[in-house]
Amino acid sequence: MISQSPKNHFGIDGTSGTSGTSGSSGISGSDGSSGTSGSSGTSGSDGSSGTSGSSGTSGTSGTNGSSGTSGVSYLFQDNGALAHNPADSTTYYFANDFGTAPYTTAATSRTYIPYNGTITEIRISMYVGSTNVGTGSAYLRLNNTTDILISSVFSWGSTFVTYTATPNQAVSAGDYYQFKVITPGFSNPNPTTCRMTAQVTIRIS
After folding, report:
1. Burial (Cβ within 10 Å: 0-12, 13-18, ≥19) of residue 94
2. Which of 8, 63, 86, 131 has the most CB atoms in a 10 Å sphere around its CB?
């Protein structure tokens, strides 16, 4: 009889074992020492300066404005009166009346003003051929309503006299004026061959 080796029989696989628990975390290591700072780099060399831009062209000059008339003064020359022999206590009027004797009626003779402005100066002169001591008065009469005193000591006692006033009297275009001279009561004989002229300066507004 042949003997047979017994057959190996494997047992049934057992169930898997449970997983083991995770191990605890290790202790953190200490911080490492800080590294040394790196050295600063060298600065670059400065760049070269840029070239200047070209200059612009100059603008053209503006033209001057025309001058205004304001502030200009003009002069009236009143070649007033033909030689005359004045009477006692009489009022005479004249303006630009070359060749005529003074009038005894107001506003017969007139000089008209063309602009608004201011009378800045009045001058009246008289030549006396034969003098006589006596003092009267002289005025510029404006619009036959307003008397502007030139002199209260207007004299026939000298061969030539001149009197000036600076009234700063406002006037308007269209106004007119005349000169007014009042004689005194002369002692005899009365003066003769008296000739009067006058000037008025007006500054335009």
Report:
1. buried
2. 86
Q: For the chain, how big is the Rg over CA atoms in Å?
A: 61
Residues 165, 80: Cα–Cα separation, whole Å: 18
Return the residue matching tokens 């307003």: 146
How many contiguous H segments (helices) and E segments (strands) does the chain have?
0, 10
Q: Let me know if 74 is exposed, middle or buried by CB neighbors in 10 A (0-12, 13-18, 19+).
A: middle
Per-residue pLDDT at 99: 76
Do 178 and 91 form a contact (C-beta atoms < 8 A)? no
Nearest alpha-carbon partner for 169 in 150, 182, 196? 150
User: For the chain, which residues score pLDDT lower than 70?
Assistant: 1-70, 80-81
User: In terms of residues, how long is the chain?
Assistant: 205
In terms of Cβ atoms closer than 10 Å to its own Cβ (0-12, 13-18, 19+), residue 175 is: buried
* Domains in the chain, CATH or no CATH each: 87-204 (2.60.120)
**Are residues 205 and 115 in contact, defined by beta-carbon separation less than 8 angstroms?**
yes
Q: In whole angstroms, what is the distance from residue 193 CA to residue 128 CA? A: 6
pLDDT in tens, 83-119: 899 999 999 999 987 778 899 999 999 999 999 999 9
